[in-house]
Amino acid sequence: MEHILFDVEEGVATITLNRPDKLNAFNRTMAMEAQQCLDRCAEDHTIRAVLITGNGKGFSAGQDLAEIIDPNGPTMSQILSEHYNPIIVKIRNLAKPVIAGVNGVAAGAGANIALCCDIVIAKQTASFIQAFSKIGLIPDSGGTFFLPRLIGWQKASALMMTGEKISAADAEKLGMVYKVLPEEVYDAELKKLSATMANMPTKALALTKHALNYSLSNNMDTQLSLEDKLQQEAALSYDYREGIDAFINKRNPEFKGE
Ligand code: T3D
Predict the structure, then answer these.
(1) Which of 19, 22, 23 is the pocket-test mutation for ligand 1 (most atoms within 8 Å of CB)?
(2) For 196-236, what is each residue's pLDDT tens digit?
(3) Which CATH architecture does the domain made up of 4-198 adopt?
(4) 105 CA → ligand 1 middle, Å
(5) Residues of the chain with CATH 1.10.12
(6) What is the DSSP string of 132-148?
(7) Average pLDDT, stretch 87-110?
(8) What confidence score (pLDDT) does residue 231 get?
(9) Residues whose CB is less than 8 angstroms from the CB of residue 205 and which lie 6 or more positions away in sequence, other chains included
(10) How far is the centre of ligand 1, averaged over its atoms, from the C-alpha of 61 (Å)?
(11) CATH topology of domain 202-248
């Protein structure tokens, strides 16, 4: 691949956005390659956790702004319907945990791709910008869906309208990210978390993700029924039997993801 590094190690697939001289801004090639990687993560049963991160000092500066003024480049409609929307849908529908390792600035679509992941970890030096308003656009890539649900309407509205850059520490305080890690431990801790996720009961995590996806729009009664249905499915899994057996016999469980 031209603009993505893809690596699988011990059940963890790492998708590294790789245009470091452009702060990993997305062009069409990179967006299509990201989708190929996500498809591979869905198909390969040995992959049990996915980490999305960026190479160099940025996570992603969002849409490559040079590409949108290129007369031979994709149209606005293609950029959303063929690039970003499928990436967001593939991340949310992937039946495995997806971790965003935000190593640096995450702007525009880059920020919103990170925010739709299941667990967002940010390096202390990272930052987040809903950069769209600064160039006369509206937040896309699920930003208007996920951000108000993560941090509340008022904060989301202000961040989107001002285009203010916020630090990783502030993002954590707002509830936009799960944890901020100091630079010196960031790589090791991210690796540890990814490995932990790859050894969890993948099927139960997938069903959890499914329930969370629906909790964004279901009412309580419907959500309780969904939990009932999904719990019955989880209870049929190998990993459920293994988890119970390990607990009763006071040993560590060895989950297979089945
Ligand atoms: O059709 C549509 O566009 C719809 C889709 C929209 C989705 C979107 O994502 S819209 C939002 C697009 N992104 C932005 O507006 C962010 C633009 N970038 C910035 O504001 C700044 O670069 C940052 C605040 C992210 C970082 O600032 P800084 O000072 O750390 O870095 P820099 O010097 O600005 O950038 C470093 C290089 O990356 C530089 O290249 P150069 O001059 O060294 O050759 C810069 O041009 C390049 N770069 C950064 N962002 C982009 C980019 N090149 C192309 N596209 C970018 N988005």
Answers:
(1) 23
(2) 999 999 999 999 999 999 999 999 999 999 999 999 999 99
(3) Alpha-Beta Complex (3.90)
(4) 10
(5) 202-248
(6) GGGGT----TTHHHHHH
(7) 98
(8) 98
(9) 96, 97, 197
(10) 5
(11) Lyase 2-enoyl-coa Hydratase; Chain  A, domain 2 (1.10.12)
